[in-house]
Design a protein that fits this description.
Elements: H1 4-22, E1 29-31, E2 45-47, E3 49-64, E4 67-83, E5 86-87, H2 90-93, E6 99-111, E7 119-134, E8 139-141, E9 150-152, E10 157-163, E11 166-173, E12 179-186, E13 188-189, H3 191-196, E14 197-199, E15 206-212, E16 218-220, E17 241-254, H4 259-279
Antiparallel strand pairs: 1-2, 1-14, 3-4, 3-17, 4-5, 4-6, 6-7, 7-10, 7-11, 8-9, 10-13, 11-12, 12-15, 15-17, 16-17
Helix pairs in contact: 1-4
């Protein structure tokens, strides 16, 4: 039987596997920023990833059969494109100058116990839209424990792609109190997205995203009294809402599922089954 301690060890090992996999060459794609009214001064370029920052509010939604359910609502602000781990000049991409690239999403999670430091959960569903913000003038509102992260849009917004299905994914709070997520999803370009992401054609079928931050990027509505076992950020004791801010990460693409994400998902499922049996 797999204990909670063993599950945590599996999660840490899986995250290390993801980090190692990220060092390998990623499939490349071509972007033409001078489309859809987004830019006029850019140059078509080759990249292998988009990097950015994310904010989301995770809220507890209920328990059934020993499984704890949560919903996350947030955004990703993609601030740059990269190739071989090096950022591509904004003079070429025009990202974060003439236009912005961002995603809005809603996710659900299933956890084997109450979400807390050291707990990993399976990502069970996701709805995500990838947008182009002509003018790069949107306002990004970070999550609080009382309100979801959101984007106040200004001017023209161009829908570039959608995500509707989770193939594999794990997320949670690591033993040191930082949030993490690694998710493997489908990816579908819109007609406008096909003008922006010009190759390969057809474009990649899958998207892989990995984001994380430190405990300073979290705020929870739990015990904040350190003298009674609480934590300064409120992520101690019983809490039902977590605001995740300053979470940085990467999204890349491929035509085959990512083995590291599948490994994490498998470890998470094994842990959930073990914890449910243990509770029984």
């Amino acid at each position: 039987m797999i204990s909670t301690k063993t599950l945590r060890s599996l999660t840490v090992g899986a995250v290390m596997t993801v980090a190692a996999a990220a060092a390998h060459a990623l499939p490349t794609f071509t972007v033409n920023p001078n489309t859809n009214g987004l830019a006029t001064q850019g140059t078509p370029f080759t990249a292998d990833a988009m990097t950015g920052v994310s904010s989301a509010r995770i809220s507890y939604t209920g328990t059934s059969g020993g499984v704890y359910s949560y919903t996350g609502v947030g955004y990703i602000d993609y601030t740059a494109f990269s190739l071989n781990d090096s950022g591509i000049s904004a003079a070429i991409t025009r990202d974060n100058f003439d236009y912005g690239i961002y995603a809005t999403f809603t996710q659900t999670f299933s956890c084997g116990s109450v979400l807390a430091p050291g707990v990993s959960c399976a990502v069970t569903s996701i709805t995500l839209n990838l947008w182009g913000d002509a003018g790069n003038d949107n306002i990004y509102n970070k999550a609080t424990v009382g309100s979801n992260a959101s984007v106040t849009t200004v001017g023209t917004q161009v829908l570039l792609g959608t995500v509707t299905q989770v193939l594999a994914g794990a997320a949670g709070i690591d033993a040191l109190g930082g949030a993490f997520q690694n998710v493997n999803t489908n990816f579908i370009l819109t007609a406008a997205g096909q003008l922006f992401f010009t190759s390969p054609d057809p474009f990649y079928q899958f998207a892989f995203s990995a984001f994380n931050n430190t405990s300073q990027g979290l705020t929870c509505n739990g015990n904040t009294n350190v003298s009674t076992g609480g934590a300064a950020n409120g992520c101690a004791g019983e809490f039902t809402a977590i605001a995740i801010n300053n979470e940085s990460g990467i999204t890349d693409f491929n035509n085959i599922p990512e083995p590291a994400s599948l490994a994490i998902f498998g470890a998470g499922l094994m842990g959930l089954v073990a914890l449910r049996r243990r509770k029984s």
